[in-house]
User: Which sequence fits this backbone?
């Protein structure tokens, strides 16, 4: 992993500018406070600060290594830094003092260099600590961002698994019913059974096509619903009627794939199954407050015995909407004495 302080041109430029400022300030202090000639002050500042800037860049690799080892042994990281700091600061001071002596070559400067040894070593220690702290902050930020990314990927994977599981709960429920009906019709009405098989193949083709796609168009979903209703109408004949009424001109809006069929399945299961009179199912869709609103209504016999089931359909639709749009309350139910309405809302912008 590259040093983050010099990983890009922008960060490298900032790093260089920072050390230029430090060199200028240090030179001014040496010139004004310590009365060094301007050329000696500049030379001293450039050598001591420039050399530590180079050492500081390489300190990143020590911090990176120690950070990894420190997760296993906190004492070891402290010992490594103490030893490394002592060695780095010693090498830095000895090298800088040797270079400046050679360049300046003044006995007065050599005396000043010896007198300033304590505060120079203190300054070097401070530089070392600042570099280490900056690197650790950067590493902490990188690790935190990586953790957030991993958690996000995990949540997305979990949500996809849950969505796939919900689909697998919904689709077989209809398939079992349809296959049972086809089995019965093969003996009593082979022609209707053949038509149902054709419709079933079209329905299955759509289901397989969209099984791994989270979203599809409203137009495709409506066409699939019509296939489903055509199959069910073959089973129930005049006992089932339906109307499709969509006020939206652009049917390319995206909605979750296979989200409508279980709502119609619910209407048939709790309406047509239990009623001795014809049951009408109506489908409407329109925009309300910048949301796509879909209404599926059916009448039912209030005196009929309730059809007990697992309650998978409506709950699965509500869960899929919540997982897909990260929003609750997108499915509502309205019931009167003899009518049942499901209201499904799809955010326009997703």
Assistant:
């Amino acid at each position: 992993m590259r040093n983050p302080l010099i990983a890009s041109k922008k960060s490298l430029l900032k790093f260089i500018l920072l050390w230029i400022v430090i060199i200028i300030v240090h030179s001014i202090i040496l010139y004004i406070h310590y009365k060094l000639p301007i050329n000696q002050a500049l030379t001293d500042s450039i050598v001591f600060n420039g050399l530590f800037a180079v050492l500081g860049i390489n300190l990143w690799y020590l911090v990176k290594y120690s950070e990894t080892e420190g997760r296993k042994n906190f004492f070891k990281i402290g010992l490594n830094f103490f030893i490394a700091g002592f060695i780095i600061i010693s090498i830095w001071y000895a090298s800088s003092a040797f270079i400046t002596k050679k360049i300046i070559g003044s006995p007065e400067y050599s005396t000043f260099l010896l007198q300033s040894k304590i505060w120079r070593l203190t300054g070097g220690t401070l530089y070392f600590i600042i570099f280490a702290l900056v690197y650790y902050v950067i590493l902490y930020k990188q690790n935190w961002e990586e953790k957030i990314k991993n958690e996000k990927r995990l949540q997305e994977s979990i949500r996809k698994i849950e969505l796939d599981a919900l689909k697998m709960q919904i689709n077989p429920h209809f398939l079992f019913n349809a296959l049972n009906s086809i089995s019965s019709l093969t003996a009593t009405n082979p022609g209707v059974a053949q038509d149902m098989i054709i419709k079933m193949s079209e329905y299955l083709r759509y289901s397989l096509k969209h099984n791994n796609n989270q979203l599809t168009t409203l137009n495709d979903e409506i066409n699939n619903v019509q296939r489903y209703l055509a199959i069910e109408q073959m089973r129930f004949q005049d006992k089932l009627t339906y109307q499709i009424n969509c006020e939206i001109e652009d049917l390319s809006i995206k909605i979750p794939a296979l989200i409508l069929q279980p709502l119609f399945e619910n209407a048939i299961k709790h309406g047509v199954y239990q009623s001795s009179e014809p049951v009408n199912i109506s489908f409407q869709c329109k925009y309300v407050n910048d949301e796509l609103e879909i209404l599926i209504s059916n009448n039912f016999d209030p005196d009929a015995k309730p059809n007990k089931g697992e309650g998978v359909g409506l709950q699965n639709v509500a869960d899929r909407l919540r997982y897909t749009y990260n929003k609750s309350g997108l499915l509502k139910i309205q019931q009167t004495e003899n009518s049942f309405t499901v209201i499904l809302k799809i955010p326009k912008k997703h």
The domain at 153-347 is CATH 3.30.565.10 (Heat Shock Protein 90).
